[in-house]
Amino acid sequence: MAEQTTPIDPAGPPPGDPAPGIPAPPAAGDRQVIRDALGVGIAVGLSGFAFGATAAGAGLTVAQACALSLLVFTGASQFALVGALAAGGNPFTAAAGAFFLGARNAFYGLRLSQLLALPRAARPLAAHWVIDESSAVALAQRGRRHTRLGFFVTGATLYVLWNVTTLLGALGAEAIGDTGAWGLDAAGPAVFLALLAPMVRTARERVTAAAAVLLGLGLLPVLPGGVPVLVAALAAPAVLWAEDRRRPRPSEESPR
């Protein structure tokens, strides 16, 4: 059988497009990953303004607010901590709630440690940047090169911008005085809800969120500040237990 060949377009491929059968250069993929990572880092990093203002409204100094962003660097946990303190909660209870909320990052780290496969010396820095956003961008990539690129560009952008905006937000709130008079005391809860809303997608997650809200608000008048947040975490295992009870059980072995 004679070999068949595909006719070649004498005009050639469009300018800038790779020739047929030749993959796009790695630089093109790198630019896309960097663009996506910068977009996520900048969009989320700007919410540091709200955290700085909320922390100042909760009674933290500028140095304390900046130390939280530098050393803790997980927005949801930071908002939970200052929110509990602003409500008059015990510092240890507030810290416990923030700790349990931030514990999810450890599960991200278990997966990312295999995908990133970083040298031992780089692991402490990488561990500090394991948060929702850097994990999401890294896990969306294909190949170790792009996974590393997405993780570190997102982490670096977000870390720098989050800390700068925390400082500016805390200084601004300190300068204007009473943050409640300006409505800035609502900034923290609003941003916290904005961070969580995209994660509530399935019916199970919506039921869990509703149960947590009912528990938290229902117990707020009777428990010390910060404790209702911890109790609200019981909504997740409760929903899973109820779902398991409703799941049909395997039928008994039918007689032959």
TrEMBL record:
Keywords: Cell membrane, Membrane, Transmembrane, Transmembrane helix, Transport. It is a multi-pass membrane protein. Its main location: membrane. It is found in: Cell membrane. The chain crosses the membrane at residues 40-73, 79-101, 149-173, 179-197, 209-242. Residues 1-26 are annotated as: Disordered. Residues 10-26 have a biased composition (Pro residues). Belongs to the AzlC family. This is Branched-chain amino acid ABC transporter permease. It comes from Streptomyces wadayamensis.
